[in-house]
Amino acid sequence: LQSSTKNSQGKSSLPPKTHFAATKIEVPSRQAIALISDHGDPAAEIGKEEAGGQNVYVRQVGEALAKLGWQVDMFTRKVHPEDATIVQHSPHCRTIRLVAGPQEFIGRDRLLEYMPEFVSAFQKFQVKEGTNYPLVHTNYWLSAWVGLRLQERSNIQLIHTYHSLGAVKYQATGKKPPIAETRLAVEKQILERANCVVATSPQEEEILRSLVSQEGNIEVIPCGTDIENFRITMPKADARTKLGFDPYAQIVLYVGRFDRRKGIETLVRACAQLKAKIETQEAEDLHPYANLKLVIVGGSEPGQADGLERARIEGIVQELGLANNTIFTGRIGHDLLPLYYIAADVCVIPSHYEPFGLVAIEAMACGTPVVASDVGGLRFTVMPEETGLLVPPQNVEAFAGAIDRILADEIWAQKLRKQASIRVQQNFSWTGVAIQLSDLYRRLLAQSLIHPAFYHPQLPIQAVDKSLVKAS
Ligand code: UDP
Asked: Per-residue pLDDT for 436 more than 50?
């Protein structure tokens, strides 16, 4: 994978990146760095509302960076009083839950007002521990707001990963909540003021340049997956036996959160179309297969946004007569998830938009061909005709056609399986991602030594950018 660090004129403004394979990591003594993930608790259960790719990214990157020699402290907001304040994941990697606002779940659109408290709690933690973090990597725009305040107080190196972009989200939904203007402003500020923004695909870099700002440094470093966990460990038939799935069924898999933007409805409607086609052709023995099963993996809480979306999807499944063909498994942990990927014939990612889409590389790593929306990071990870197929988002016919092509041609599917797993092993391991991040951090820290240090922890937080807080 090639990566680049360019400003708007396309000129490199950071020391050049070491080649991936040639990178040698030398961190003399454990240098402490902070990863900030305001709402994506790296120690949380993955697969539920507000706990998805960002949590996985921060946790996996944190653990892999610690293995490379850093002391990694991951900061998030405490959402339950009974949650531990510090979770030690490995000797040099921990999650620290800061008290900022009520210790309860609060939707992202209402979190900004607690971010000044987050900044104070972060500073207090540093004083208490006697630690200084010369490098802070923020995740999501609310953490970017925190990072920008920290940058005003000391000469930290600030790195940011977006995970989701307001400009894209509001364009796709056509709706702008009251927080929208503030979010868009912070997303522009962080690109222009951070030492480097990490885009997870070349597609994201293009979008940042066209929709957010021409200024600032961007480096492309992809997301990764745990290739020790997500890999082909057994034949498909064995995985099905372990899960109690029909060995002869054609299994279509969805893995992810229940959120309208994930496009599960498109997938359900595509399966209904396919079922109708199979049934019409079955009598005359015209269709190459007959037993379609849709497995939907993802957690939800009744009454919460994801619970409501699951109920809506269940309603559509009933209405289309797919109840006997559909299994809702609930949330499945990463320990068991590889079995589901291996057992499936095809994994479908019907998102309206996806900045990266971890599920695509997890499925491919397990040798499962992917049918995905032709959007965002999925264009980067899924190679059409080689590891799966890309189709226009929300297009039921196109999804039905692509799923059918893969299910109907076992020989071609075998080829896709092999190519998919090789693509992930070669390009998307967390270790590879962490090596690239580590290299970036070292270059930024080396650069920071050139500039005189300053430290103003006493700068009043409420006085900074009050207009932004008010706008929420
Ligand atoms: N996930 C999981 N269990 C589930 C559903 C999802 O562990 O029941 C994980 C999935 O394996 C992936 C993450 O949640 O690692 C979803 O990341 P992705 O980037 O695909 O979507 P996001 O949630 O960030 O929108």
From this structure: yes
Q: Burial letters for 9-40: b for 16+ Cβ neighbours within 10 Å, e otherwise?
A: eeeeebeebbeeeeeebebeeebbbbbbbbbb
Q: What percentage of the chain has pLDDT greater than the value 90?
A: 76
Compute, in angstroms, the gap from residue 465 CA to the centroid of ligand 1.
Answer: 34
Shortest-distance Cα residue to atom 10 of ligand 1:
359
Q: How far apart are CA 140 and CA 136, in angstroms?
A: 13
Quote the ipTM score. 0.99
Q: Which amino acid appears at position 287 of this protein? A: H
Residue range(s) in the chain whose domain bears CATH number 3.40.50.2000: 5-224+429-471, 236-427
Give every strand in the sheet of 5-6, ordered side by side: 5-6, 218-220, 196-199, 157-161, 135-139, 32-37, 71-77, 93-98, 86-90
* Separation CA 5–CA 257 (nearest Å): 32
In one letter, which amino acid is 436? Q
Q: How far is the CA of 52 from the centre of ligand 1 (A)?
A: 4
- Closest protein CA for atom 2 of ligand 1: 47
Q: What is the mean pLDDT of residues 422-430?
A: 93
Q: What percent of the chain has pLDDT above 70?
A: 87
The whole-number pLDDT of residue 469 equals 46
pLDDT of residue 48 exceeding 70: no
Q: How many CB atoms lie within 10 A of CB 466?
A: 11
Tell me, using a 6 A CB cutoff, whether residue 176 lines ligand 1. Answer: no
Domain over 236-427 is classified CATH 3.40.190.10:
no
> Ligand 1 in contact with 435 (CB < 6 A)?
no
Q: Whose CA is nearest to atom 23 of ligand 1?
A: 52
CA atoms within 13 A on the CB side of 240: 17
Atom nearest to 351 CA in ligand 1: 25
Q: How many CB atoms lie under 10 A from the CB of residue 86?
A: 11
pLDDT in tens, 210-263: 999 999 999 999 999 999 999 999 999 999 999 999 999 999 999 999 999 999
Q: Per-residue pLDDT for 435 more than 70?
A: yes
Ligand 1 proximity of 40 Cβ (cutoff 6 Å) = no
**What is the rounded average pLDDT for all residues in the chain?**
89
- In short, whether 376's Cβ falls inside 6 Å of ligand 1 is no
CATH topology of domain 5-224+429-471: Rossmann fold (3.40.50)
pLDDT score at 45: 73
Which mutation among 359, 361, 380 tests ligand 1's pocket best, with the greatest number of atoms within 8 A of CB? 359
